[in-house]
Specification:
By secondary structure, the chain is an alpha+beta fold. The chain has 5 helices and 18 strands. It folds into 2 domains: 118 residues, no CATH class; 169 residues, no CATH class.
Length: 299
């Protein structure tokens, strides 16, 4: 069997869909006229990550139509696994075809892609619940927070050794001055290894303290001076993660740890900028004063 064609059909029997395709990520969502949502092929594995950049754009024909028949053409490898799937959409109003999308398949087995090309999903726009705080700090504040986590909450510490690569370190190994040099990850769970990728805290039980962004609100007289530079840190973790395309809560032990960390920040720092902020008061006052002399820029 070299090729196979299949017409997408909703579980309710409908064959006309609104289509949202993210071509670069090879991910798609089909919504039938009755409002039932289905992820296309293996999109569930990547859908939550795609939503971080916003909802994929709704496909629209040049005639203005937004309903399409969607056909899949499968190309198989020797041995029977799917090599490639071409997604072709045809406007139901004018019969004009849209540019096809090719989806390359690089794993095995692939039977499910043929047997069940549409994967029903009730809440396609729901994303993992995450928490983020920002903090204008001095270097000593970053050290104080890390010390609290390590000594009071028995946290393990992982430092970013190279881009997206973390290794476990002791508190004494971390360089906080003249500022925190690398992003840090903290967890109170044993046996945890940091997964590869850009944001490990979005997929595993880690609380992240980012190395600071340099914020400048007004230029100093001496352009080489750091007098007007403020250090903005991000602290973040995920309540939920996506595993096997399904949202799962993080372990209760870790969520308790992360909540205690954020409660400590709220008790020891000010939130005059608004919710989910934890500023050193002196740094906040400087930032507030700086803003009267110019606009912020990230340098």
């Amino acid at each position: 069997m070299n090729n196979l064609e299949n017409t997408c059909r909703c579980a309710c029997g409908a064959e006309e869909f609104q289509v949202r395709l993210k071509r670069d990520e090879q991910v798609g969502l089909l919504t039938c006229a009755a409002g039932h949502h289905s992820l296309l092929l293996d999109s569930r594995e990547y859908w939550a990550d795609v939503l971080q950049d916003g909802r994929p754009k709704l496909s629209r024909c040049r005639c203005g139509g937004t309903l399409f028949r969607v056909n899949l053409e499968y190309e198989f490898r020797q041995g029977g696994d799917v090599r490639c799937i071409q997604v072709r959409s045809v406007c139901t109003a004018c019969s004009r075809g849209q540019s096809p999308t090719d989806i390359d398949i690089k794993y095995s087995p692939t039977d499910q892609l043929v047997i069940r090309p549409l994967d029903p999903i009730e809440e396609p726009w729901r994303q993992p619940k995450r928490h983020q705080m920002t903090a204008f700090w001095k270097p000593a504040d970053a050290e104080r927070f890390a010390t609290y986590l390590a000594e009071s909450l028995s946290a393990r510490i992982f430092s970013e050794d190279s881009p997206y690569q973390f290794k476990e370190v002791s508190l004494a190994d971390v360089e906080f001055y003249p500022e925190l040099k690398h992003s840090l990850l903290f967890t109170n769970l044993d046996g945890m290894n940091v997964p590869q990728g850009r944001d490990p805290e979005s997929s595993s039980p880690f609380l992240r303290l980012n190395g600071p962004f340099h914020m400048v609100y007004s230029l100093p007289r001496d352009l080489s001076s750091t007098e007007n530079t403020r250090l903005l840190h991000y602290i973040k973790y995920s309540h939920e993660v996506v595993r096997g395309g399904v949202l799962e809560k993080q372990p209760i032990q870790f969520l308790t740890f992360a909540r205690e960390a954020c409660d400590w920040l709220s008790r020891n720092y000010v939130s005059l900028r608004g919710r989910n902020t934890a500023d050193n008061l002196e740094e906040y006052l400087k930032v507030n004063h700086d803003r009267t002399g110019g606009h912020a820029c990230d340098v």
